[in-house]
Amino acid sequence: MFVLGIDPGLSRCGYGCVEQVAGRQRAVAAGVVTTDRALPLPDRLATLRRDLRELVEEHAPDVVVVERVFFQTNVRTAMSVGQASGVALLTAAEAGCEVAEYSSNEVKLAVTGYGAATKKQVQRMVATLLALGEVPRPPDAADALALALCHLAASRTSRRLPAGEGRGHPTVGAGALSRAAAQVVAAQVATQVVAAQVVAAQAATQVVAGTRGAR
Which residue of the set 67, 101, 106, 143 is catalytic? Predict the structure, then answer.
């Protein structure tokens, strides 16, 4: 099985290709796709899509694995990660690839055996499992390789289970298109929620200030 892991990001999108043959895994390629921060957002998304399409065409993976996006404290980061994730899902679905998604904790658990492992612990285990001489750089590439390893581990587990059991993460085909759109919308909603919270906090501050002034 040949798996392409993608760690989504707009400025830096990590990728890692892992091949498994006869139970042995090896890293085929790893790196990052970058976009120019000075360009308008639509151009950056187009650049990311073009580069990811070239990666998929070059390596022809059996499965593309993308990290499942959860809301983050930094809304700007959540927005860009959600947009990049949508582009990755769209590109894989258009190429006819199977698509799988895993959360960060699921990847940590699969790679290190501990769902709360640190990034450095994950990176060291990636190097160990793939028999690399050093930890993959940059970290985005290591995270992408970890995603690929996570899917290979999940695939081994599912093959050992009876049909219909333990398959909590079915692969996605063309349905990934709607999921990609939903992730972008969800990120936009998160932005609106935080903006409303900021406005409410500012109003509360003004009320407290007015109360103190009246005293």
Answer: 67
Residue 8 to residue 163: CA distance in whole angstroms: 31
pLDDT tens sequence across 128-187: 999 999 999 999 999 999 999 999 999 876 654 454 444 344 444 434 433 443 444 344
Q: Which parts of the chain sit beneath pLDDT 50? A: 160-161, 163-200, 207-208
Closest CA to 149 of 168, 123, 175, 171: 123
Q: 158 CB contacts (<8 Å, ≥6 apart)?
A: 166, 167
Residues with Cβ within 8 Å of 70's Cβ and at least 6 positions away in sequence, in order, are 103, 104
- Is the C-alpha dihedral spanning 152, 71, 105, 141 positive or negative? positive
Question: What's the order of all strands across the beta sheet hosting 98-102?
Answer: 24-34, 12-21, 2-7, 63-67, 98-102
12-21 and 24-34: which strand pairing? antiparallel
Q: Which of 7, 51, 98, 106 is catalytic?
A: 7
Which residues face 65 on adjacent strands? 5, 100
Q: Find the catalytic residue in 19, 106, 140, 143.
A: 140
Which pTM was predicted? 0.74
Residue 67 annotated among the catalytic residues of the structure: yes
43 catalytically annotated: no
Task: Check if 51 is active-site.
Answer: no
